[in-house]
Amino acid sequence: MERQYSVALIGTGRIGVMHARILRDHPLVGQLLLADAVPARAEAAAAELGCESASVEEIFAPGTPLRLDALIIATATATHAELLIRAAGAGIPTYCEKPLALDLGEARRALEALKAAALPHHIGFQRRFDDGYTRARQLLMDGDLGDLRRFHAMTCDQSPPPDEFIPGSGGIFLDCNVHDFDILRWVTGREVVEVYATGLARGSEAFEAHGDVTDAVAILTLDDGAVGTVHSSRHNGQGHEVRLDLMGSRGSANVGLDNKVPLRSVEGGVAFPPDAPWVDFIERFKPCYERELDHFLRNPVQGLPSACTAEDALEALRIALACKRSREEQRPVHLSEIV
Asked: Is 181:319 a contact under the CB 8 Å cutoff?
């Protein structure tokens, strides 16, 4: 029989509760404790899911009787780095949602703490567990696409977030496109060397008030000369759209062109796509989150390598920060500037 683990999850917002549901039903989880900066929220989620609640301080207290085997961080981005540092100090193998931090200094503090403690960890970039991205990566590695010349990636939400989410999100490049930046590195095996980004703010005045945009486009150049675009939107009315197109000298690979892609063809006789569009990232990527948490429990928690480390997350953050600077300063930004 497989050993069962005692797992604590901090952060019982939307994504935290999704993770909690997956963990509650996982065969390797024997005990699940939910915690939150607002204790009543954790208690309500625990009651709904049939598990236990604890305080954040109990989780990290020296000599805590909780005897945790693993920790999940699903809190607001601004808290990620500090909680990773505390997890390193407590020696608890940790899964942390992306991004690593809101700025490079905090991210490096967390990375150094994880390295110093040699802490098994995983950063939550769930697209690495998606079948489509995995197949596209393999096609590129096997040479079926030839030389990669161009790419096009996008992350577009159907509905905008509530205004209160915007100030702490880090902006559209850190919150949305950081997924595209990570998966581009993973699929292509290349590094981004230069970006040029622009965008606009429409809809709620909260976006412009906090220096954010609702729609953005970035041009990325890879270290082998391949070029491409990354699009994002907070309000893509047709549906939730996440895609990646790779165009090479021998062929192409297109991730996300499934039966629920939110496209509307205006050509006669075309019935694609046949199904209702995706509505949000949870619906689109639920199987990936399940695989990712399973990977965390069967690999980092057991001392085996992670599919996405803090070093990976730091590089995705650098690209996001370069795009943010490019948009603000209206100029191309070389990644060597983001140090």
From this structure: yes
Give the neighbor-by-neighbor strand order of the sheet with 227-233. 252-255, 241-248, 148-156, 227-233, 215-222, 192-200, 333-334
Q: What is d(CA 189, CA 209) in angstroms, rounded to the nearest whole number? A: 37
- pLDDT tier, 1 (very low <50, low <70, confident <90, very high otherwise): low
CA dihedral for 247, 228, 202, 125, sign (positive or negative)? positive
Would you state the structure tokens that stand for residue 334, as one six-digit string? Answer: 């070389």
Give which of 76, 42, 46 is closest to 57, Cα–Cα. Answer: 42
pLDDT, one tens digit per residue, over 197-229 is 999 999 999 999 999 999 999 999 999 999 999
Q: How far apart are CA 326 and CA 339, in angstroms?
A: 15
Closest CA to 283 of 240, 245, 244: 240
In the structure, what pLDDT confidence band is assigned to residue 2 with cuts at 50, 70 and 90? confident
pLDDT tens, residue by residue, 44-83: 999 999 999 999 999 999 989 999 999 999 999 999 999 9
Which secondary structure element, helix H or strand E, spans residue 253, and what is its range? strand 252-255
Instruction: Label each residue of 82-115 as H, E or C.
Output: HHHHHHHHHCCCEEEECCCCCCHHHHHHHHHHHH
Residues near 211 by Cβ (< 8 Å), separated by ≥ 6?
171, 328
Torsion of Cα atoms, 127 then 129 then 135 then 139, to 10°? 80
Order the strands of the 52-53 sheet from edge to edge.
52-53, 29-35, 5-10, 70-73, 94-97, 121-124
**Quick one: how many helices (H) and strands (E) in the chain?**
11, 13
